Amino acid sequence: MAGKLRITQTKSGIGSPADQKRTIRALGLKRMNHTVEQDDNPVIRGMVFKVKHLVKVEEL
Q1: What is the pLDDT of residues 1-60, one digit of tens each?
Q2: What span, in angstroms and rounded, lies between the C-alpha atoms of 57 and 60?
Q3: CA-CA distance, 4 to 12, in Å (whole number)?
Q4: How many domains is the chain partitioned into structurally?
Q5: What is the CATH number of the domain that holds 36?
Q6: What is the pLDDT of residue 2?
């Protein structure tokens, strides 16, 4: 049974490479301090790892 991850964008994507901007959008984040909940699975974990310097992650 997979848990959930609460992902919050803490830094702006301005100046980041385009692939990182697309990853932020694919996670469902739209602006700074926006929080989304995603299922905890390897795909989401990989996306979070790619933009770990822009987000804060909490396990639920």
Answers
A1: 579 999 999 999 999 999 999 999 999 999 999 999 999 999 999 999 999 999 999 999
A2: 10
A3: 24
A4: 1
A5: 3.30.1390.20
A6: 72
Structure tokens given for 15 = 């100046």
A 10 A CB-CB count for 57 gives 15
pLDDT tens string 11-22: 999 999 999 999
Strand partners, 58: 6
How is residue 16 annotated by DSSP?
A: S
* Location of structure tokens 């830094």: 11
What local confidence, expressed as pLDDT, does residue 26 receive?
Answer: 96
Domain containing residue 29: 4-59
**C-alpha to C-alpha distance for 25 and 28, rounded to whole angstroms:** 5
* Crossing angle for the helix pair 42-50 and 18-26, to the nearest 10 degrees: 140
